[in-house]
Amino acid sequence: MESHTVTFRRCSPSMWSVGCLQSFGDRNLKSLLRSEPDIKVEDIDHTAELLVLASDGLWKVMNNQEVVDLAKRYKDPYAAARHLTAEAVKRESKDDISCIVVRFKA
């Protein structure tokens, strides 16, 4: 069994920290899997349009530019996330597919 927790933390008025923590329930796989979080802090300014948080099921079949190009076609972030997951299925992703799209106001 696999569980995920995503934490958003506001560091300043213009900076957000997104931390993803992944834990794995199958003890037999612990030596093969990395469960350390990847943490990156980015300054968000007025040019930021969207943020895509997705699982490996999306990233294994689409590169960053393909994801951005598809997500930008939809004003509704829910519609963008649905279309991104549908595209990953269409490309025969074999991993779990989870996707959240956040649109920033201009």
UniProtKB/TrEMBL annotation:
InterPro entries: PP2C, PPM-type-like_dom_sf, PPM-type_phosphatase-like_dom
Keyword annotations of the record: Hydrolase, Protein phosphatase
Gene3D superfamilies to which the protein is assigned, alphabetical: PPM-type phosphatase domain (3.60.40.10)
Top enzyme category: hydrolase
Pfam families with a match to the protein in the record: PP2C
SUPFAM superfamilies recorded: PP2C-like (SSF81606)
Domain of life: Eukaryota
Gene Ontology molecular function: protein serine/threonine phosphatase activity
Residues of the PPM-type phosphatase domain: 1-104
Catalytic activity, EC: 3.1.3.16
Catalysed reaction equations from the record: O-phospho-L-threonyl-[protein] + H2O = L-threonyl-[protein] + phosphate; O-phospho-L-seryl-[protein] + H2O = L-seryl-[protein] + phosphate
Name listed for the protein in its UniProt record: protein-serine/threonine phosphatase
Protein source organism: Digitaria exilis
Lineage: Eukaryota, Viridiplantae, Streptophyta, Embryophyta, Tracheophyta
